[in-house]
Amino acid sequence: MNRDQPLSVTSTVLPVSLTNLLAQYNRNPSVVGAEHSFFRVLQRELEERGAKITWYEGLLVAQGSRPDSLMLSAHIDRHGLICTGPNEFQYAAFVAGSRSDLLGNSVGEQLMRKVVTRFPNERVYAYEPWSGAYRGQGAISNAYVCPNRNNLIFEVEGLEHLVAGTPVAFTDNLKVTDEALVGQLDNVLSAAILVYLFELGFQGTAFFTAQEEAGKSWRYLLEWFRRFGGSTNQLVVVDTSPFPDFTAAQEQHLVLRHKDANHKFNLELTAKLKDVCDQLNYSYVFKDEYVETMNRERQARGEEPASLGSTEMGRIIAASKGLVDGTTLQIPSSSYHTLSESAPLASVQAFIEVISQLTQLDRS
């Protein structure tokens, strides 16, 4: 890992057009399994920036004049709830991933108890999944683990009229501080940056995938490559990456990986990203090395090791049998999977400049 280059202590000011995009996208719902309305928003914004847009099930593809030059992928789903009965709501990612059943595929108790504490009294609103039409607002009044179904249940005041199948998003407004972007950033931040790259003149391919939080997005992406019989080793999956707190997130500009829990990543492309970071004097950490170091410390204390994490990139490499290869580039953040996820402004700026250098965009 390279942390020799500290984060800049001077104020970082992000492009206004980017923060405007991000603020707009944060107000447009995209709950796991109900992303269609957000795809429509993206299509309009990307077409205005000259991209050719094609829709597939679970996937929106934006292409410039050199689509094979570099391929970037960001998932667009965000955590939220889904109505599953009269005044009964479940965590959408668990439902979309078929992990809220009675067949032994339910979510672990530790994860459920972690989620149940993330959204006390949060404001929420319901929407029609295709059009995004507003269906009412309310607030989470209770959340508990149902012992009979081994399932996480939410109760919401104000949305008693909803019918089963209606998605419910968290009410979120982007906040920009002197140091960070704050909000439900995973993964609307990466999506906004990819749209902004087309504004800068990006001519490659950008994939926007659905249901990543349910572990399904890689299937939609792999099907696209199989559909056209194409192959690539130039895919970069972009996302945020969780750290224990904001101080830890600030210790590096960017997050790279050699591998995740599923597979090793492309050595050449990973090395190329590392070289670009070095050229631009941006610090980085390899997340797999970070976790392995942390696990040695945990082992010494007699604690259970942490997972290397499961990414869209590792899943698709493992499943594609050589058809698709690549690596990841991530923005460090804290308060992951909450409405207060915080990403350092310096890291967002570094991310844009590294991708711009990788694609030889002129940002002058």
Features:
364 residues, 32% helix, 11 helices, six-stranded mixed β-sheet, 2 domains, six-stranded antiparallel barrel, Aminopeptidase
Could you give a short description of this structure?
The protein is α+β, with helices and mostly antiparallel strands and 364 residues long.
Describe this structure in words.
- The chain has 364 residues and is an alpha+beta fold.
- The protein has 2 domains: 16-78 and 174-358, Zn peptidases (Aminopeptidase), CATH 3.40.630; 81-170.
- Helices cover 32% and strands 26% of the residues.
- The strands form 4 sheets. Strands 1-2-12-3-13-16 form a 6-stranded mixed sheet, with helices on both faces. Strands 4-5-8-7-6-9 form a 6-stranded antiparallel β-barrel. The protein has a 3-stranded antiparallel sheet with strand order 10-11-17.
- Strand 4 and strand 5 (88-91) form a beta hairpin.
- The longest helix has 14 residues, at 287-300.
- The radius of gyration is 20 Å and the shape is globular.
Write the layout of secondary structure elements.
Blueprint: H1 16-26, H2 36-48, E1 52-56, E2 59-63, E3 71-75, E4 81-85, E5 88-91, H3 92-96, H4 109-116, E6 123-127, E7 134-146, E8 151-157, E9 167-170, E10 175-176, E11 180-183, H5 188-200, E12 205-209, H6 217-228, E13 232-242, H7 246-249, E14 254-256, H8 267-279, E15 284-286, H9 287-300, H10 312-320, E16 324-333, E17 341-344, H11 345-358
Parallel strand pairs: 3-12, 3-13, 13-16, 14-15
Antiparallel strand pairs: 1-2, 2-12, 4-5, 4-9, 5-8, 6-7, 6-9, 7-8, 10-11, 11-17
Helix pairs in contact: 1-5, 6-10, 8-11
